[in-house]
Write a structure and sequence with these properties.
The protein has 217 residues and is α+β, with helices and mostly antiparallel strands. It contains 7 helices and 5 strands, in the order αααααβββββαα. It has a 5-stranded antiparallel beta sheet. The protein starts with a helix and ends with a helix.
Length: 217
C-alpha cells in the first residue's frame, strides 16, 4: 500500500502531491473515527439486547458501555495521532504516563471499584434480588443486620429494616460486605416471619396476679 501511494505521489504534480499529503492522513483519521463509532454502535446494540432480553441491570450495562467507549475511543485517538505523524516514542511515553496515573487512581479508589465489581457479581450469581429478605451473619453464626432489599446500586445495597419505604428505617450496606460475611436468605413465609418475630413468653415465669384476683381465691 505504501509503495502504491509513493508511486502515485511521485507521478503527480508538486502542488497536487502536497494536497495529497494532507488529504490522505485526514481520510485515514476519518475512517478510524467511523470505525470507532461503528464499534460503539454494535456495543450499544449488544448492551440494549442484554438489558431487554436477558434482564441485565441497566446500571451495569451502562458502566460496561462506558468502559468499552473509553477503550475504543482512546485507541482511535492514539491511532489517529500515529497516522498524522506523531512519533511512536512520544505516544508510548504519553501512554505509560497515563497508565501510571491510572494505576495510582485505581489503588486510591479500590474500595469504590471493589463495590462496583461486587455489584456485578451479585447480579451474575443471583445471591439475592430486590424484594428478598437477607441477613448478614456475624462471626460464630451470631445475628447481624437484617432487612428487605429495596435497591441495589453500583455502590450500596439498601435494606428496609423496619416500617415501610416512606416512614421506616433503612440500612445502606457496601456491596463488598456481602462477600465478606455469611449471608442468610429468607424465602416465602419465612421472610415475613423473619421481619415480624413473635414475642415468646417464658413458661417458667407466671404472670403477676392482681390483688383483686388474690382476694377472690
Amino acid at each position: 500500500m505504501n509503495k502504491l501511494y509513493q508511486s502515485l505521489h511521485d507521478r503527480l504534480p508538486l502542488w497536487l502531491a502536497e494536497w495529497l499529503d494532507i488529504f490522505v492522513p485526514v481520510l485515514e483519521v476519518a475512517v478510524i473515527g467511523f470505525g470507532a463509532w461503528l464499534v460503539m454502535r454494535v456495543a450499544a446494540l449488544i448492551s440494549r439486547r442484554l438489558t431487554t432480553r436477558y434482564g441485565f441491570p441497566v446500571k451495569v450495562a451502562s458502566l460496561f458501555l462506558r468502559s468499552i467507549g473509553v477503550l475504543v475511543y482512546g485507541g482511535a485517538v492514539l491511532w489517529s495521532l500515529e497516522r498524522l505523524g506523531v512519533s511512536g516514542s512520544v505516544l508510548w511515553t504519553a501512554f505509560t504516563g497515563f497508565a501510571a496515573v491510572g494505576a495510582v487512581a485505581f489503588f486510591a479508589a479500590w474500595s469504590v471499584l471493589s463495590n462496583l465489581f461486587c455489584t456485578l457479581l451479585i447480579y451474575i450469581t443471583q445471591a439475592f434480588r430486590i424484594g428478598d429478605v437477607v441477613e448478614l451473619l456475624e462471626a460464630g453464626d451470631r445475628p447481624g443486620v437484617k432487612g428487605r432489599v429495596l435497591d441495589i446500586n453500583l455502590v450500596y445495597t439498601t435494606l428496609l429494616e423496619s416500617g415501610d419505604a416512606q416512614s421506616g428505617t433503612t440500612l445502606q450496606l457496601p456491596n463488598s460486605l456481602f462477600f465478606q460475611r455469611a449471608l442468610r436468605r429468607w424465602n416465602g413465609a419465612a421472610a415475613e416471619a423473619a421481619l415480624s418475630p413473635v414475642l415468646h413468653v417464658p413458661t417458667d415465669r407466671a404472670p403477676p396476679v392482681s390483688p383483686s384476683i388474690g382476694r377472690m381465691v
